[in-house]
Amino acid sequence: MIQDQMTPIERLTAYNLGNPVDRLPCVPIVGNTAARVIGVKVGELPANGKLLAQAQITAYRRFGYDIIRIFTDLYGQAEAMGARVRYPEDETAYLDQPAITDISQLDRLTPADPYRDGNLPHQLEAMKIAIAEVGKEVTVTGALTCPFTNASFLIGAENLARLVGKNPDAVHYLCRLSLETCLNYAKAIIDTGCTPSLTDPMSSSTIISPQKFREFSFPYLKQLIDYIHSRGKPVTLHICGKTAKVWEQMAEAGADCISIDNAASLSEAKTKVGHKLRLMGNVQPSEIMLQGSPAAVRLAVLSGVREAYDNPKGYIVASGCSLPTETPFANIDAMLAATREIGYPITKEKLDLLEQRWSK
Fold it and tell me: pLDDT per residue over 88-111, tens digit each?
């Protein structure tokens, strides 16, 4: 078995500088799979900072990937602003009821205090613990839901979709409130020593048009990214689904790295925006990581590397989105093992040889 020769921070630092590395950075986006690593229920994590930190630190040490992401679900900020979230005993949380159901109730909403409201204090506690225990060897990030997506959780996705056409002023009001919460939370995340990791699924071109992205998502996303940059932190931005039509806007908003869903093409992203930002992705979380074999994982990793290893701004091997909770450990091991065997530097000839061997 090939062993890592560098710590994750050493690897990313060298890679950023164009210096030699032992392999590409690799990030199977481990969310609630971490509960399985320490043998606890998923529902135990969101309100228990110590347990959440233990799960994510243990998962990192178990698999050896390059970035820890403190994350349980997308709804923490909205819950802190009054939304009702349901926490099943052993499944990922889901939105039970938005904070309001009609724009006549807008005055009920106020920005969240991440040190006081909802489960945000527990998330911050987990980040502090992770930084204290492993922050010198691996980058620790804190998941942050972006303003437009958070706005959809405040009034409900269907209501927001109607308002986009009928009452844009109300949408902007919700996005401004959400931005305030995002800025408060981003500041708190950075103050722990972590880096915010941005997720914005409702801004997907699968859901809204590029024109509506420009009007309702982009202005607030850019303000958030500008703030994070002002604190000296880079920004990785993940938008689910089809995103090719907004890649240029994601780059314009200031993202340093975009996480590509498996519904999008790494090679197309490389051609369109690879000279502007780093790419990350896009092994299928469900079809390959959850349901596939280790052999299928290795070939999927190889395919992604073949598409994007020569991206001008760099490439990170990763899943296309957060891994399903029941993802087999053997498949996460296979992603790391494949990345280690591919090694660095990378040539087309080496990839061809590995494909011949792994396809047998």
Answer: 999 999 999 999 999 999 999 999
